[in-house]
Amino acid sequence: MAKRVSRLIEENRRYVSMVLPVKESFDIVQRDIIIGGRDCTFYFVDGFMKDEAMGKILASFLAVKAKEMPGDATEFASKVVPYVEVDVIADYDQILRNVLSGATCLFVDGYEACIVIDCRTYPARSVGEPDKDKALRGSRDGFVETIVFNTALLRRRIRDPKLIMEMLEVGTASRSDVVLCYMQDRVDPKLLSNLKKHIKSMQVDALKMNQQTLAEGIFKRKWFNPMPKYKFTERPDTASACILEGKVVVLVDNSPSALILPTSILDMIEEANDYYFPTITALYLKISRGIITFLTVFLTPLFLLFMQNPQWLPEMFSFVSVRDTVNIPLVLQLFLLELAIDGLRLAALNTPSMLSTPLSVIAGIVMGEFSVKSGWFNSEVMLYMAFVAVANYTQPNFELGYALKFMRLLLLIMTALFDWFGFAVGCIIVVCAVVFNKTLSEKSYLNIKMN
Fold first, then answer.
1. 15, 69, 278, 445: least surrounded by Cβ within 10 Å?
2. Number of H helices, E strands in the chain
3. Whole-angstrom Cα distance, residue 257 to residue 255?
4. Judging by beta carbons within 10 Å of its beta carbon (0-12, 13-18, 19+), is residue 38 exposed, middle or buried?
5. Model confidence, pTM
């Protein structure tokens, strides 16, 4: 049974000091004060409290006289506390959670409950447009690491009483806030029930990597299928559109992106610009993106297959044949370039912005004409791999890009080892990886029908 607040202030102080490291941690503050002739104690975390608001609250408390003091905590909260967000809690587990979350908790001698004043504030950056999900039109705001700001961005766009934002808690140590956002009359009840069951049954110490830890806990993917199960977005307009379509958006505190369920392969290659263009333009962009996504998987394996069987190449496409001397096997060239592209990508991520331009120039020289003249690579191989590298950035999902890369590597290996038979088997594996990839709602990855 959970411990409850005592009427004696000294007992409450002793228990809180035993559970919370008040003396050891400088940021957990205990403030003793006399209100209306009664001994009282505040507990709060330094840095989470609005100093100006709390100063005004203290001034009003000090003005209370002994004869004006109410008889219980509920009456005190309604008559004495000059603040909007006030709660009365008697359970210590909830009280300690509120203190560590940033709320200010007040114990008053003689009251068998704690007055929780939610005048907290979190360090937060501006809700500027995210670097990843840019749009030519539309709003220029984006999600931030503070969950209350993110829910406000959604509520501002959907002013409907059917919009539900359900708060859950995950992690025995982190006790991270997780919010499920959905339209009550449009969401798939089975999906919602299944999602809640998975989240509530998660036995984790903490969401160490925020949203990613939650995603892995909700749906444990099979290691041999790299296709992503979720769609992520940092744009509140995209998340709002998905909610209105009947999907569930999951927000995690300290994470500047939303997790969208359920999702399909078509959702993965969709981006924010598709919502802002006319139907015909958006359709063209989706088709173009789909074709390019298809080519990123099959272009280099097909090139390798035709180079191993040049007699299959139609006369009109004979110009694609390798004319130069092949010093290194084609399949090895393709693998080396795949590795080199990833190396350049990692280097770009870890390079200071002031040095990114010189790095790009050096990489272009080394990976360009010099690499061909040195005899390491053929110009045709360089051309096709350059297309693949650029085409990876035409679709917005980072995980999908690497899933397609793994499929391409599998096709290259199968084609190099078993020629046309290996290519055919590899294509079957790629199709099966997409077709048999199930979502959390246990529906097809290719076609999801919303209620």
1. 278
2. 16, 10
3. 6
4. middle
5. 0.83
